[in-house]
Design a protein that fits this description.
mainly alpha; two-stranded parallel ribbon; globular; disordered C terminus
């Protein structure tokens, strides 16, 4: 039963739902009619994207609550408020754990024998500046696709250079597809209804969604950018003040998570100490350096047998990057 679950986890879920209800219902129907300046609440609400995703992430790994049924129900509901079907988010994230830094999933890497920096940048920068989240949101439109269409989609997107085909194949499985359709409809109804409630102030809602898109997309690959290839268990731990580490539910200890994906967020710090792990870069530094753009497959720093890039940066050694 849900009452047997840990009080802290339930409290965090309640706070997350309260924030979502405030954004999607209370603000447009109650507060904005009183004073349009209440719209400024959307600024701090946008910042809560990070802990919101962290809670969904706990649900993806089945560790939000010990009861698996309630874990999935609450994570699915949080994902609706986030704006993405939980079934797709879960499949995508678990594929990330399996294929990270391999040929199928190395976001910033391009092969100079097959492409140019400019060609890679045309897809890299839109993804970095909001595109990742926008694709998650737009995936809800696939609710209109019949089963035969999903089979075609899998065939068209299947490639050794991408997890997209594998992602669609997992979603298209019978039980998953049914759940995906219910979740996608819930997202569409929620955000359509909220848009109607905002009325003439709808730009506020979608500005907040745009901020969420930017935050999600900037943070997604920061833990892996310019790290060694062919090492799915590797990621970077990024430095944050302890209060911010608590705010993001220790998501910054990403190397610890990749090596211990079954640990709950509040167990990661102890595992970090026990493993004698290290902080590789500052969080803001890691996010900002992604602006350098795509990295060639031939770059010395991303070779599996090379010294990690963060080691060179922290020691002051010259970089071998282009």
């Amino acid at each position: 039963m849900v009452r047997r679950q840990s009080a802290p986890a339930i409290a965090l879920v309640v706070i997350a739902f309260t924030t979502l209800v405030l954004q999607l219902v209370v603000l447009p129907l109650v507060l904005l009619p009183l004073d349009v300046r209440w719209g400024w609440l959307l600024v701090p609400i946008a910042v809560t994207t990070v802990p919101l995703w962290s809670l969904i992430h706990e649900g993806i790994h089945g560790i939000l609550l010990r009861d698996r049924g309630w874990n999935d129900r609450l994570a699915r509901a949080l994902a609706v408020g986030y704006g993405g079907p939980f079934t797709l988010l879960k499949a995508g994230h678990l594929l990330h754990h399996r294929y990270s830094r391999t040929q199928r999933e190395r976001t910033e890497i391009y092969d100079p024998a097959r492409s140019s920096w400019l060609a890679a940048a045309r897809t890299y920068y839109p993804r970095l500046f909001g595109g990742l989240y926008c694709l998650e949101l737009l995936s809800t439109l696939l609710v209109l696709l019949p089963r035969r269409g999903w089979a075609l989609l899998v065939r068209r997107t299947d490639s050794l250079d991408s997890v997209t085909g594998l992602l669609f194949e997992r979603v298209a499985r019978r039980d998953n597809l049914r759940r995906f359709r219910v979740e996608a409809i819930a997202v569409l109804v929620t955000y359509t209804g909220s848009s109607i409630a905002y009325g003439g102030h709808v730009w506020m809602l979608w500005s907040a969604v745009g901020a969420r898109a930017l935050i999600v997309s900037l943070a997604d690959n920061a833990y892996h950018y310019r790290t060694r290839l062919e090492r799915p268990l590797d990621a970077m731990n990024l430095a944050l003040p302890r209060v911010l580490e608590l705010f993001v539910l220790a998501f910054n200890l990403h190397n610890v998570h990749h090596r211990h994906p079954g640990l709950r967020w509040h167990e990661l710090r102890a595992a970090y100490v026990a493993d004698r792990d290290e902080i590789h870069l500052g969080w803001f530094t890691a996010v900002a350096r992604q602006f350098r753009g795509p990295v060639p497959l031939t770059a010395q720093e991303v070779r599996a047998d090379t010294v990690p890039q963060w080691t060179a940066e922290m020691s002051g050694a010259p970089s071998t990057s282009p």
